[in-house]
Write a structure and sequence with these properties.
By secondary structure, this protein is an alpha+beta fold. It is built from ten helices and eleven strands.
């Protein structure tokens, strides 16, 4: 039998979010195609555990899966567990997934029983059904529609700078093929990118690959919508007299003018250095100036002791 989503991760139902995340990270590290180039089974398992994590890490989908509303591929299940009252040809006894109050029946023990024949006997014969072109008499005439293969889910963590610049990301799929994934405008943490025909093979063609993007945090930059923010330390001299200083951006350092008399907390702006929105427009980089005061500079201490200027910067607060 195929493993359910919890079994794929080696967990029991009721596992916590932290347990699910920990199990996925451990398995993904072991099974990643880059580490198992000569083991196609590992690549297949990598796709399975990634898809399991993709569904179970989504609270809504996990709840629907636990209630039996969707299957391991995330597709809706048929009413009553996929058949008429949970019926499965040739199976005896109640079937898992049968609706409340329903049981499965063997219909006299005949394997592969034709439900069309059953309904014809109950509701007026085959000819009537064929004449009407539908109803129960036409039941066995309807062929099952060929299905595409299953979608395969992936999670891809990318550097903050690459997300800002929309730099293509190289990714190895479960079939062992490596592609350069283009990042779309409007990229956010959790954005899903669908790759048509990159999933599993099926009777009606291949399914899709669905890549969920995770943007890694940065030690200097933070995101504010399409803008990014940087706290920039400057010296007292640079703030008082003004200066040109080198400032890091996700795409390399640039020179920024610090106006004369700049106070701590002043926010300067570098145009077009932020994230790209869905409409193609780029946000800005906001630079918040922070004046660094050395604690052990004797010259600065003597200057401050002799200086009587500055007024009362708290006057606006009424104190």
């Amino acid at each position: 039998m195929a493993l359910d989503l919890y079994q794929r991760l080696g967990l029991k139902r009721g596992a916590t979010e932290a347990e699910i995340k920990k199990a996925y990270r451990s398995l993904a590290k072991q099974l990643h195609p880059d580490r198992n180039k000569d083991n196609p089974n590992a690549a297949k398992r990598f796709g399975e555990v990634t898809q399991a994590y993709d569904l179970l890490s989504d609270k809504d989908k996990r709840a629907r899966y636990d209630r039996g509303e969707i299957d391991e591929e995330g597709n809706p299940k048929m009413p009553f567990g996929g058949g008429f009252g949970g019926y499965s040809p040739g199976a005896g006894g109640p079937q898992p997934g049968a609706g409340p109050g329903f049981e499965s029946f063997n219909f006299g023990g005949a394997e592969g029983a034709d439900l069309g024949d059953l309904f014809e006997g109950l509701f007026g014969g085959a000819s009537a059904g064929r004449q009407r072109g539908g109803g129960f008499g036409g039941f066995r005439q309807r062929a099952r529609v060929p299905q595409k293969g299953a979608d395969v889910a992936y999670r891809l963590k990318i550097p903050f700078e690459d997300a800002v610049a929309l730099k293509p990301q190289r990714i190895t799929l479960a079939d062992g093929k490596t592609i350069d994934l283009k990042l779309p405008p409007g990229l956010e943490d959790g954005t899903r990118i669908r790759l048509s025909g990159r999933g599993e093979e099926g009777p009606d063609g291949r399914g899709d690959a669905i890549v969920t993007i995770e943007i890694a945090p940065h030690r200097h930059f933070t995101r504010e919508g399409s803008n990014i923010r940087l706290e920039l330390p400057v010296t007292l001299k640079e703030a008082v007299l003004g200066a040109k200083v080198k400032v890091p951006t996700p795409e390399g350092p640039v020179m920024l003018s610090i106006p004369k008399g700049t106070s701590s907390g002043t926010v300067l702006r570098l145009k077009g250095r932020g994230f790209t929105a869905k409409d193609g427009k780029r946000g800005d980089q906001l630079v918040a100036v922070e004046i660094g005061i050395p604690s052990d500079d004797p010259e600065l201490q003597r200057f401050a002791e002799a200086w009587s200027g500055g007024g009362n910067p708290r006057a606006s607060l009424g104190v």
